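Lab notebook page, bench 4
Experiment: in silico fold of construct C2
Operator: M.H.
Input chain length: 173 residues
Purpose: comparison with the prior construct
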Amino acid sequence: MKFPTVSLYSSQASLSTKSQPKSIAVGEDGSVFLAEINGLEVVRDNQKTFELPTSFTPSAIDVHGSLVVVGGEVGYLYHSRFLLVIDSANAQDSKVRLYNWDSRSLKEAGLLEGNKGPISAIRFSPDGTKVVSGDVSFVNFFALPETDPTQSSGKLFLFDVKGKQARHPTEPK
């Protein structure tokens, strides 16, 4: 079995980001798309080429051709065994956003709705016509001593990119 060869553009092994990275995707043109707590960044050839502050907290990202898809999450201030505090100034809608990438900037191209909790995973289908997103539904926001507040379940949503329609992946066509 042959493995692909990976090479760096230069001897630089790291690059500082504007805020904490949550998810990373690499485009066909070599652009690296970063979903960070405070927004999106694009890096190419070890240089930041674009920054986009967001009104939501990006949590997951993927790219297919010139389309970039980003999932959002709720802004959390504090989590302990007994309390989960949501930052109401940054509480989000857990929506999936589509952007067009023109090798210079990202422009919002659509909003995909259906998820009920923070987006924890997102991917394009191989042909780029569908996006699947997974969210997290917290079972216990205010935990009783005998329950585990970190116990959660999830749900998947399948979106038609062109029609911007959502359906649960297990529903019949």
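Observations: The chain has no helices and 14 strands. Confidence is low (pLDDT under 50) at residues 1-11, 77-91, 139-147.
Next step: discuss at group meeting.
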